Amino acid sequence: MTAFRKHLEFLHRTDDCRTLSRPADCSPQVVAAEALRAGGHAIEIEPETGREGAPTVPTTPTVTLASGVYGGIDQSRGQHTTDSRHRQRYPWTRLGIGLGIDQDPAYTDVLESLLALGERRDERDVTYVERAADATAQDLRELGLPTPPDEAWPRFTLGLLSIGTDRGTYWAPIHGTVLDGNTIRARVPAAVAERDLLETGTAVTIALGVPPEALAATHLLAITDRLETPIEDRGVGATVPVIPTAGGVVPSSAEVVVETTVADRQPATQSEKREFWERLGGGTTLTLESTSIFAREEPVVPFTPLGVPLSDDLQLAALSLSATLFDRVNSYWGVAPVDWLLLPAEGRLGLCIVASEILYAGFEWQLANLLFSLSDCFDKVLVVDTEISPRNLGRALGDSWVKAHPSRDWLVSEPDAPSARMPTYGRGGGGGESSREDGGETGARLYVDATWDPRWTDEYIAPRVSFDESYPPELREAVRDSWTEFGFEPESMANVGDESESLE
Amino acid sequence: MTTPATTFREFLTVLENAGALTEIETPVSWDLEASAITMAANAADERIPVFESVEGNGTAARLVGDPYRGPRGREFDHLARAFDLPRPARLSGPAYYTQLIDRLEEQREPTVVEPETAPCKEVVRTRAAADRDTSTNTSASATGSAKTNAETDANPDANTDANLLEFPWPYIHQQDGGRYATLTTLVAPDPDGEWGRWSRHRAMIHGESRASVLFLAGEQLPNRYYYEYERRDEAMPVALTLGAGPAVTAASEMWIPVGRSEATFAGGLQESRVELVPCETNDLRVPASAELVIEGRILPEERLDEGPFGDYFGYVNGPRRSMPVLAVDAITHRERPYLLFCVEGSGVGYASNSTSSLQVAAAGPDATLGLRAAGYDVAMAAPWPYTERTVWVIATDRPYPGALHELANFIFTTWGMLHIDCFVFVDREVNPLDSRAVVEALALHADPATDFHQFGVERMPKVPLNIYQTPDEKGSAAVGTSKSKTAKAYIDALSDDERPTQTIGDSEKRRRARDLLAEAGVAGVSDVAGVATETDAMGEPHSAIDHETDATRHQHPQHQNR
Fold first, then answer.
1. What confidence tier does A87 reach under pLDDT thresholds 50, 70, 90?
2. Best of B350, B496, B552 to disrupt the A interface by mutation (most A CBs within 10 Å)?
3. How many angstroms separate the CA of residue A154 from the nearest CA in chain B?
4. Does one domain contain both A280 and A337?
5. How many whole angstroms separate alpha carbon A329 and alpha carbon B327?
6. Where are the domains of chain B?
7. What is the DSSP letter of A430?
């Protein structure tokens, strides 16, 4: 288990996080959104300490904010010159670090670790520890949560909702706005509300700055509609030490814990901002009244601007859905032909890329259409050969054009399939803020076959141009040996050749 | 730099000043080694290698690997420096396109200089008359007709050892059929103009005096050869030049309409007249500063093998095919010439090479201007970021039903006929060079039911270089197109005003945020400016970004002996 502040520490240690002071003249959400657009470092925004000698301002923010800590990488751009002196980073790298896999985690290892968090356990193995957060006298506003531009109230995101019951504790994602010192308007999964777990007067707890395992588990379980099982019976329950609260148990290392009661249940409104899991599982609005607030010393909490490209909530949803589909497509045919499956956050879950062995002619059709059956998010699937690494999204996107014949390998179904949820013309209204329930009810599906036809003989298969395949091994070795002598940066050679993708 | 670089050597100085060059003194071999180093540099987004010492090289020629490759994400940057464009054009693709198009609209006629002052005449090697391939007629009527042997042999300073094998042509991929000249400008006669026509064609070296030239029917010069010269059983006089300067190279990458001249467009790019000099053995004029000029003739009814070759698709195409023959009459060059080459196929995926960068930085602005000139209201047309040529992204509106079909139809039947399979149309607000935004547009706005369009099924011509046709389908057609036809497609990924949120906060706040991020050392902030189409990110003065951009490469002390 990785405490959230430990996760940040790792990101700093791997030169993957930059710190700046909270500006007085610019919303942290704007700063975070621009950092995400840059696709560079994660950022930590520290509370402004005030100028030396200046009187202490009573409303000085108390939380440190962190953004881009679960994704933050624009994989469509590849590694740039400015990145090449450091190790390579991918959209799953930071979450993989948070899940305790490795500094440079393989993509499928991240998917499998995510899946393990959601697995059912036959026996409970929960660790209860002392609370790390101390009680404070603050009201909610004194936490200093940031207010997005054009909004009236401070907003919290990437929170964990805990609901205690006799059977155990249920965790779910939560985000919302702070209306006053005690009142929160929150968005939670509709599935939780529908199960009468959130009656008026029910005690529930919000935890911010929880371990990546806990947060990722809430998103995974929410988008796969598996919130009906107490976390004590899931993998995450055996992974994250917890403490009891007025609501349910929460991760013991949580940075901020807000105990609340449900004051009101409200229907979903079109104007509410949404975290991305809501686009898959649906959400509802609650009014919560806080009863106690606990915070660690110098608390640090994650936050993400909502609705912008590459946000952390989007990345968590993309990885969670990718993990789920990866697992399912490898569970049908007695063998596991799929090497990897990726829903790039750049496509906001409207596109699925899958690398698979083509077991027989027509298998690519079977695979693509199974994916359409398993998820209604997307209506486009790109099938690529297994020689392409998930680290090389650019190659996969290039192959979709040069390996796929424009008339034979771009295959569109009749327009009588259920309309996909993510595209703007679809049921869900796409990545926009508004849900367009009047979107098309049926639509067509497209899959692009960028694999070699298994019926082709070897002489038909064009060899790839690459450092590894275009030059003999002794020459490659000589180039590597003399790399710095040639005047190149020593680290940049790590980005060259299949070895740079060998982890996959 | 206060004036644009007009020669290749000045361009190398531009790269050196940008810290984007490394001069390698260690002797390397033309036999795969120089290319392997270059491909690795391309993959790593590293400095451009200049190979000062090449083994087995009787002319002391030097090699330069993919000199026109720009830094990843800003492939236009080096040409922007070379053309001395205002700083915003180095940071922002849209700003670069705007500036370059302005230059293209200010064309300048070339000027002719005396051979004595032309650097490309520092060494003149002509083949002895008896050794020249004179088995076919040579036209003397059109501009660019061949000089008589008596005329050229009268040059007392000329050597008689024009021999292709004296030069270290690189063997680029181990699957290639031979050694290649790749980053060329082929100068050919122009019956409609005074200055000849320029375009890029690779040549596979076959011996001392012969090479096969990739001529694909559908392109202007090959059409002229196949359907005019060859039908008259005449050789087409040509000059294959290398290292003629950034403006010449960029103009050679463009599709210039009949009746216009690449030379005048190059003059516009470099804001000065391109200096031309007459050839030794024909009436063509070539860029005077070229590092090397191969004068010769494309012979009628003669073919030599061409390929296989690791091509711009990122794969080795095959099978070996027959292509027209270049017979060499003379070679002129600078002392210790630079032979620049492109490792084709290494510019796919994330990586760039000279071809992919020139497509972005030269072909794109030219296409944008050309489409506007044809009456299409196009914001930007640029190649898809992960392929060198196959797919283009066009930012535009849909002013009336059918507008996109009409636009695609126009391009596919003209300059986009051979190499481009598909167009992706995106909102005017989307920068085609912003790969994230383009992927998003495809994923969210292109409806498979209504937005994926084909022009019939397999009715269109296709270059035989592709890899999705079988060798049988590609065949070995006489004019260099596949035996079987292919399909062309376009995708309407316009959002119809449903584009999701891209940014939050007003432009002033966003700029302030980027300043803060740059000060904190957050990587990639300058690239945000590079991909954004919004006005505030078009490269306004931005000290933190400037600092980061220049600090990305260490300055290396380099020799100044060019």
1. low
2. B350
3. 15
4. no
5. 58
6. 111-335, 374-492, 507-551
7. T
Question: Is the complex ipTM more than 0.90?
Answer: yes
Cα A204 → chain centroid:
24
- Kindly report, residue by residue over B532-560, the tens digit of the pLDDT: 444 333 333 333 333 333 333 334 334 44
Q: Are A269 and A285 spatial neighbours (Cβ–Cβ below 8 Å)? A: yes
Q: Which of A348, A440, A445 sits opposite B500 (nearest CB)?
A: A348
Task: For the domain covering B111-335, report its CATH number.
Answer: 2.30.110.10
Specify burial of residue B114 (Cβ count, 10 A radius: 0-12, 13-18, 19+).
exposed
Residue recorded with tokens 């409806």? B447
Q: At which of A302, A319, A351 does a domain end?
A: A302
CB B413: neighbour CB atoms within 10 A?
12
Comparing CA positions, the residue from B533, B88, B89, B12 lying closest to residue B269 is B89
Using the beta-carbon criterion (under 8 Å), do A415 and B449 form an inter-chain contact?
Answer: yes
Amino acid at A456: W
DSSP B420-477: --EEEEEETTS-TT-HHHHHHHHHHH--TTTTEEESSSS-B---TT-SSS-HHHHTT-
CB contact under 8 A, A463 and B175: yes
pLDDT digits (tens, 9 = 90+) for B465-481: 888 888 788 877 677 77
Query: Any CB–CB contact under 8 A between A333 and chain B?
Result: no
Q: Does A28 touch chain B (CB under 8 A)?
A: no
Q: Which residue has 């042999």 as its token pair?
A: B153
Q: Please give the residue range of the domain that contains residue A487.
A: 467-501
B308 prior amide bond cis, ω within 30: yes
Residue A261 phi, psi (nearest 5)? -125, 155
Note whether A285 and A355 are same-domain residues.
no
Note the pLDDT tens digit of each residue in B490-514: 999 999 988 999 999 999 999 999 9
User: Which fold would CATH assign to domain B374-492?
Assistant: UbiD C-terminal domain-like (3.40.1670)
Q: Does one domain contain both A101 and A126?
A: yes
What is the residue-wise DSSP string for B32-64? THHHHHHHHHHHHT-PEEEES-BSS-TT--EEE
A29 closest CB neighbour out of B44, B49, B504: B504
Report how far residue A420's alpha carbon sits from residue A414's, in angstroms, rounded to the nearest whole number. 14
Same-domain pairing of A404 and A480: no
Backbone φ and ψ for A192, nearest 5 degrees, come out as -70, -45
